[in-house]
Design brief:
This protein is an alpha/beta fold. Among the domains are: 62-238, no CATH class; 308-460, no CATH class; 560-650, no CATH class. Strand 26 and strand 27 (585-588) form a beta hairpin. The two termini are 14 Å apart. It comes from Desulfitobacterium hafniense (strain DSM 10664 / DCB-2). One of its GO terms (cellular component) is cytosol. One of its GO terms (molecular function) is 5-oxoprolinase (ATP-hydrolyzing) activity. Residues 3-161 form the Hydantoinase/oxoprolinase N-terminal domain.
Length: 658
């Protein structure tokens, strides 16, 4: 069997697949960010007790594969370890994700020749100043992709002086772009403890269940990497969760051409599938405002999910997202006393400009660089014993509700709100009821009262907003995919179009309609409640496959290992050919010799990679693309360079026991 685990922002999903990649069992458990072990353990317990009985022999599992949003969320939230950055031969061209950096002499030119020699004394002195201040080091040399010798030498010195994990930029990407390559290296260094914590948590649970199997993780392009690879290059797990959903949707449907929509608790992710594969972003993934050189699928992400915050603005408009809160139904399911507090808050009919009628607060942490005022400190201390509604907390602190403004604590992640969400709407409608329905109903009554409508009318208004935002997200994603011009998903024209599309009127001179030619594959627990209406309006075929609610975990267990390597062969003015590979810079007398050497290098790397991953059936494809002067035919003297690309494709041989 294969075990797929997806550690998401809200839920940890698990699936067991058999040798034909059919789903044997599936389960969910809440992700426990304070201790990942708890959520992963609960997921496997639920998986083991499938259909109310223990039916699985964990000894049959030969592969455990993970997908996760942890790396993506860490970059977005600015978390990770303290990383030092050594820049060789170049100043930073923009903002960096670290305060600890130094510029060293050295670096190379476009041909891979040194600009200046390294100064070991300077490097050792710099590293000595960082002793005890940094947990990892990133090294980025100017044009190191043309010659990595300086980065490799500095790595040796870091090992001698500090003995902390080291990341070299040339090992993460072969693309030009000093700033982007540098940012990628720093983020990679910062993410090492994040992925390490996930791996340790998973392996702890696997030991508890006596599961002895290879451990793999999904990369941002949907392919698999080894545990060792993830520890060395955690940056490649950016967008792992959304990429895994693409693989899962494809595995569950066999689709070759489709739009894949994954609606989770926090976001909705959309990708376009063509010829069975998603488009890969050629510039690299942009996460948290940082442009990286990480290979990732072109995924469009929108702040809309089951846990999106439903608000009423000062104009009386119902808004959904992009902020995430706890659904009242789930909060009261864990803390039942909140129902009584919500009832009291409903009867009080209170209004403050910085809070919604049903707002409650849940403690997360108290470590912060903020200087807290007296009310904030008292509120944090009070909530450590359990969450409370806005009104109850104000009473316990002895202040008026309109003086209790805890927005700063929410923004800095010390508290999280519980309030009305799309999940609560579904609880009251009866289509999804794992939580406390009474709490959801009370919250909706408060919102309806503020808006001056009935509870049913409010639910209709809020559901309409969810459906409209999903439709707009689909349209924007398809425009971005086809035009690649970053069309604004919130443009006035698009909003007018959607208004006309969703509320046609026979008395108007013009009614609009749209037809989407690709089928929409919808995955995620809430899609069955929203997507039929979207598909009707967009006139497209909707596919909600069986097991769609755990498609991410299916994708984790269904992936292939594909490793890509790149090199460049350049022609010099002296008539030589220089090979710039991920390992070295080497000169050859003729092009054929350079190509043969590059092929042997990549084949040796493939064999080593396959051995580490437990892959016995793999294929190595090496392609050489010669470039010549534009507008000329092939002739001696007009040759410019050769791009060398290699792909190592295989599946871990999990059927054979170790």
């Amino acid at each position: 069997m294969l075990l797929g685990i997806d550690t998401g922002g809200t839920y940890t999903d698990g699936v067991l697949l058999d040798s034909r990649q059919q789903v044997i069992a599936k389960a969910k458990a809440l992700t426990t960010h304070q201790d990942l072990v708890i959520g992963i353990r609960n997921c496997l317990i639920n998986l083991q007790e499938h259909d109310g009985k223990q039916v699985h022999d964990w000894q049959q599992i030969r592969l455990v594969s993970l997908s996760t949003t942890l790396a993506t969320n860490a970059v977005v939230e600015g978390r990770g370890c303290e990383a030092g950055l050594l820049l060789i031969g170049g100043e930073p061209a923009g903002t960096l994700p670290t305060q600890h950096y130094a510029v060293l002499q050295g670096g190379h030119d476009i041909s891979g020749n040194p600009q200046a020699d390294l100064n070991p004394g300077e490097i050792r002195a710099t590293l000595a100043q960082w002793q005890g201040k940094v947990d990892a080091i990133a090294i980025s040399g100017y044009l190191s992709v043309r010659n990595p010798e300086h980065e490799l030498r500095v790595r040796e010195l870091v090992g001698e002086v500090l003995g902390v994990p080291v990341v070299c930029a040339h090992e993460l990407t072969s693309s030009l772009g000093f700033q982007e390559r540098t940012v990628t290296a720093v983020l990679n260094a910062k993410l090492i403890p994040v992925i390490q914590a996930l791996m340790v948590s998973v392996k702890t649970v696997l030991r508890e269940f006596k599961i002895q199997a290879r451990l793999m993780i999904v990369k941002g392009d949907g392919t698999l990497m080894t545990e060792e690879g993830a520890m060395a290059k955690p940056i490649e797990t950016l967008l792992s969760g959304p990429a895994s959903s693409i693989v899962g949707a494809t595995a569950l449907t066999g689709a070759e051409r489709a739009i894949i929509l994954d609606m989770g608790g926090t976001t909705t992710d959309i990708a376009v599938l063509k010829d069975g594969v998603p488009k890969v972003n050629p510039a690299g993934a942009t996460v948290g405002g940082w442009l990286t050189r990480v290979r990732a699928a072109a995924i469009f992400t929108y702040g809309l999910g089951g846990d999106s915050y439903i608000k009423i603005d000062n104009k009386g408009q119902v808004l959904v997202g992009p902020q995430r809160v706890w659904p009242l139904a789930m909060a009261a399911g864990q803390y039942p006393y909140l129902v009584e507090e919500l009832q009291e808050q409903l009867e009080a009919v209170w209004t403050v400009p910085f809070a919604q009628p049903a707002d409650s607060y849940i403690f997360l942490k108290d470590k912060t660089p903020l200087t807290l005022n007296e009310v904030e400190s008292a509120a944090l201390e009070n909530l450590k014993s359990g969450p409370h509604t806005h009104l109850t907390l104000a009473k316990q602190l002895g202040i008026e509700p309109h003086f209790l403004n805890l927005q700063r604590l929410v923004e800095f992640g010390l508290l999280v709100k519980a309030s009305v969400t799309p999940t609560d709407l579904l609880h009251v409608r009866g289509s999804y009821t794992p939580g406390n329905v009474s709490a959801a109903r009370l919250g909706i009554k408060m919102m309806a009262h503020r808006l001056g409508v009935s509870a049913e009318e409010f639910i209709d208004l809020a559901l309409h907003q969810v459906t409209e935002k999903l439709s707009l997200a689909l349209l924007a994603s398809m425009l971005n995919y086809t035009k690649g011009s970053g069309h604004s998903k919130g443009s006035l024209q698009a909003e007018i179009f959607l208004d006309e599309l969703f509320a046609p009127c026979p008395e108007r001179p013009l009614n609009l309609s749209v037809q989407v030619n690709f089928p929409v594959i919808a995955i995620g627990a809430p899609v069955k409640d929203y997507l039929p209406k979207v598909a009707e309006k967009l006139q497209c075929r909707l596919i909600i496959p069986e097991h769609s609610e755990v498609a991410n975990a299916v994708g984790a267990a269904s992936g292939w290992q594909i490793e890509t390597l790149e090199a460049l062969i350049r022609h010099t003015a002296q008539g030589d050919f220089i090979l710039h590979s991920p390992w070295e810079r080497r000169t050859f007398a003729d092009l054929t010799e350079a190509k043969d050497y590059a092929r042997r290098q990549f084949e040796e790397a493939a064999a080593c990679s396959a051995e580490k991953a437990g892959v016995v059936d793999y294929e190595v494809m090496v392609n050489f693309a010669d470039e010549h002067l534009a507008g000329t035919s092939y002739a001696k003297g007009l040759y410019l360079y050769t791009k060398v690309q290699a792909a190592i494709i295989g599946r871990p041989h999990w059927l054979d026991a170790d």
